[in-house]
Amino acid sequence: MTISIWRFSHLALALLSFIFIALLSITGIILSFEPVENRLYANDQSVSISQVLEKIQPRFEEIVELKRNEFGNIIISGIDTSGNNIDGYLNPLTGEVISEIKSQKHIYSWATNLHRSLFLKSTGRIIVLIASALLTLIAITGTILILRRQKGFFSRVHKDGFYNYYHVVTGRISLLFIIIISISGIILSFDKFGFFEKEQEMPVFETGNIKTEPTIKISEFPVFKKIKISDLKSLEFPFSGEPEDFFILQTATEKIYVNQFTGEELHKISAGGMKRLTDTSLDIHTGRKNSLWAIILGVVCVNILFFIFSGFKITLKRIKFRNKNVVKKEDAEYIILHGTENGSTKAFASEIHKQLINLGVKSYISDLNSYSYYPCGKKLLILTSTYGAGEPPANAAKFLKLLAEINQSNEILFSVVGFGSHYYPDFCKFAYEINNELNEKQWAKSLTEIHTVNDKSVPDFLKWVSVFSQKTGLNIRLDENKVSSPPKNIKRFKVTSISRSNDADKSFQICLLPLQKVSFCSGDILNIYPANNNRYRQYSIGKIGKEIQLSIKYFPGGFCSEYLINLKENDEILGVIDNSNAFYFPWKANKIIMVSNGTGIAPFLGMIDENYKKIDVELYCGFKNFNSYDLYKSQIDINLEKGKVSKTHIAFSREGIKKYVSGLLINDEVKIGAALKDGCSIMICGSLSMQKDVLIVLDKICNNNNLSLSSLQSSGRILMDCY
User: Fold this and answer.
1) pLDDT of residue 676 exceeding 90
2) I need a surface site. Which of 222, 580, 641, 671 has the fewest CB within 10 A?
3) Integer Cα distance of 77 and 432 in angstroms
């Protein structure tokens, strides 16, 4: 099945049931407090029934019954030595009566009735049964979507918006609990409708066959000694001293009739498998006997409400940018086709379409699955994301097939823009496939080189807009507010120091102190907003003490580097920390090889500074010349002396024996191969061109050592943060 079918199923099931599931979740949250509130004493699993009887017999003239209520509390009914009728909670650990029986609070009785039957009796129970079944199916389809998107249930989740990210993360955590809740609810519903076996009737005893000798104390009855009070459901005492009256002991697994004189087990009825199943399901579904489990169930119900809300937020975002066309496709000169999974790519495409319309261009926009014949077409713009393991998004799954079948009669210039994340190894794979297929078409001619956008970066997209405008002569001015969300959790940072290199490229280091509470680690990303609007630039950070250290290459006129290089100590800037779970120091590794070029060294300097365990770290760095390296040399030398980095390998591409960092790895390929076989991890930070060269070398090293580069990447032993 295609991903669109699973998504449609997931959404359809949610739409059908969300009101009822929301009601069940809200009442479930309320009811999760009841077991916690009603639990009266500590765990009693170590105490036998015999021990409890020994403690309570001196306090009572007559005992009618001991029973365990739904919350695990023992209730005793009888007459005490003062002749008072007692019907209260018993502490089995001390034998004392704690309090009288509490009536159920109205809020809990109301929530129970609503939760079980929606106040609709049998009809309501049927609705609850259906809602539980739909919740199970929603969990299953959601699991399939996670597997398709993440290429594995436990793989790291890329941060693609708050609701997208936490919908997946909390879904993975809560999945098993949700299935347990829904299936146990289904079982209880079937039980209420009488689908399961009935309890066996009480046996008939021949009074003459019941022994009355030898008489022993009830606290010495073997059956009472071997059964824990925690397993008790009820213990009915004999009504009289006649032989035909006996103790009736009921546990979760059996009912035992016990001779009141000798303690002999007269008859035993084992609870059927379905009876045990329904009892267990009730315990699991309500958390009635375990306060911790009740709290967990309450949290899961909160999560379910979040799933409902976030799921609809994601859906609304996906359909937000509807295709608005003022010309028919048959008359359009510019055709914009988009492939999108959650609506983000459509936002970019819609904004370009709007700009073209404002410029008087006959523009037509649709999804890739709607590709058709365009008799007046002159330009074809394709903006598409990639899903999962290089697959097309749901609204682009048919495009390549349509492209093979439908040819255009006139020459069309095309431009392909791929949206993705370097977090995934199949970065913009589907966009590259489209670009390759179009290059094979006689009627298609490339207007621009394929362009890629990382993590919906507006600056990345603006680069393509600039090239496209130059090629077409159209003055496109993108409204960045329409394609990017305003910054959230923005913080203030104070400049504590700036260090500039003596090299002509004007690389520099800047240290920032957060002025507001914010957590960060080396390898995280700092988004800096120079103009205090939605435009930002991203930098990998190193953590030195409580400060953030950035290494930046200056570009004259650069949007952010020009701003940063002109800062002074004590100046303040605005930024947002993006936690990067994919690029943290691997503390469990026995050896770490760090590879960087230029300013990519920043997070490594922070990680090395924090290497208090003194894990074996070798640093491979490439710089243009010694002046570029001199900016970092003293910091590296200090950590060499402290043993936080064991060895450094430096390459200069413009000075002395000219060499790139990939050449350093080639020189040490035997040593690196042995280290990889021994469990070493490799971290790469810097430019994408450097990453490409380094991966070629590592692939060769892996092949020579019977290792798989892709396996090392997927298992987290090769970590990359390149740009």
Assistant:
1) yes
2) 641
3) 77
Contacting residues for 590 by C-beta, under 8 A, at least 6 apart: 615, 616, 678, 679, 680
pLDDT in tens, 686-696: 887 888 899 99
Report whether the peptide linkage leading into residue 58 is cis, meaning its omega lies within 30 degrees of zero: no
Backbone angles phi, psi at 615, to 5 degrees: -65, 145
| Interior angle at CA 707, CA 701 and CA 709, nearest 5 | 75
Fold of 491-578: Elongation Factor Tu (Ef-tu); domain 3 (2.40.30)
User: Phi/psi zone of residue 679: left (φ > 0), alpha (ψ -120 to 50 degrees), beta?
Assistant: left
Encoding tokens for residue 645? Answer: 């980095």
**Based on the number of CB atoms within 10 Å of its own CB, is 614 exposed (0-12), middle (13-18) or buried (19 or more)?**
exposed
Superfamily (CATH H level) for 321-483:
Flavodoxin domain (3.40.50.360)
The answer to whether 368 and 337 are in contact (CB under 8 A) is yes
Residue 544's nearest CA partner among 456, 596, 591, 605 is 605
Task: Name the phi and psi angles at 43, rounded to 5.
Answer: -60, 135
Over residues 609-658, the pLDDT tens digits come to 999 999 999 999 998 888 888 889 999 999 999 999 999 999 998 887 88
If residue 578 lies in a helix (H) or strand (E), which one and from where to where?
A: strand 572-578
Classify 234 as helix, strand or coil: strand
